[in-house]
């Protein structure tokens, strides 16, 4: 494992912790897209089904479990515990616009036509667009709390570090996963506009 992947995982975890602490501290889900959080929970669920079939390392297993638990706690906070503070009116992105093409693409373009592989591919494609409801919500309301922008910054940093991870692996291990790399680049592009606003503000 290389330093870019470790830093990427830390940035990803930090983003999720920042979001959870924001919700718990303020007792509010204002400005947070519940739809994006549902998509991320779906991403982790479909990607980490190999927890039941394959052991890679203690680090790998612990991180997967933490991401799954945090994703479902976040969804619970938004839709159950603090649902009265959730801005459902502005969280209006149509999820079928993402889920239908992502599902179709995962059946058409994958490494092997097996249930686990299709679900893993689905998770990779879905993660690349899962942030769109959040970005759509920010563009619709024209505002975002500072803590929400920090969350988005660290998510974007995670993706950028993972691109560095893939470059490193290509040159040191001759490893290249076209599905993961293309999806990661697409996802990072979605964050570029946000990064510009984050830095300038």
Blueprint (SSEs and pairs):
Elements: H1 3-26, H2 34-47, H3 58-81, H4 96-108, H5 115-129, H6 132-141, H7 146-173, H8 178-200
Helix pairs in contact: 1-3, 1-7, 2-3, 2-5, 4-5, 5-8, 7-8
Quick summary of this structure?
The chain crosses the membrane at residues 62-80, 120-138, 150-168, 180-199. The protein has helices at residues 3-26, 34-47, 58-81, 96-108, 115-129, 132-141, 146-173, 178-200.
What does this structure look like?
With 201 residues, the chain is mainly α. The chain has one domain. The protein has helices at 3-26, 34-47, 58-81, 96-108, 115-129, 132-141, 146-173, 178-200. Helix 2 (34-47) packs antiparallel against helix 3 (58-81). The longest helix is centred in the last third of the chain and has 28 residues, at 146-173. It is globular.
């Amino acid at each position: 494992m290389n330093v870019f992947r470790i830093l990427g995982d830390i940035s990803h975890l930090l983003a999720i912790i920042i979001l959870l602490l924001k919700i718990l501290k303020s007792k509010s889900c204002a400005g947070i897209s519940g739809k994006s959080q549902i998509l991320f929970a779906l991403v982790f669920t479909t990607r980490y089904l190999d927890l039941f079939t394959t052991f890679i390392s203690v680090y790998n297993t612990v991180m997967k479990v933490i991401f799954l638990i945090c994703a479902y706690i976040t969804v619970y906070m938004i839709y159950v515990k603090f649902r009265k503070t959730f801005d459902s009116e502005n969280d209006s992105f149509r999820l079928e616009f993402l889920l239908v093409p992502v599902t179709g693409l995962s059946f058409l373009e994958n490494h092997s036509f097996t249930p686990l592989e299709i679900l893993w591919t689905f998770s990779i494609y879905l993660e690349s667009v899962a942030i769109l409801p959040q970005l759509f919500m920010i563009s619709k309301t024209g505002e975002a709390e500072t803590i929400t922008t920090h969350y988005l910054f660290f998510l974007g940093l995670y993706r950028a570090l993972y691109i560095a991870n893939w470059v490193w692996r290509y040159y040191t291990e001759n490893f290249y996963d076209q599905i993961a790399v293309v999806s990661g680049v697409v996802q990072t592009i979605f964050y570029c506009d946000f990064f510009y606003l984050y830095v300038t503000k």
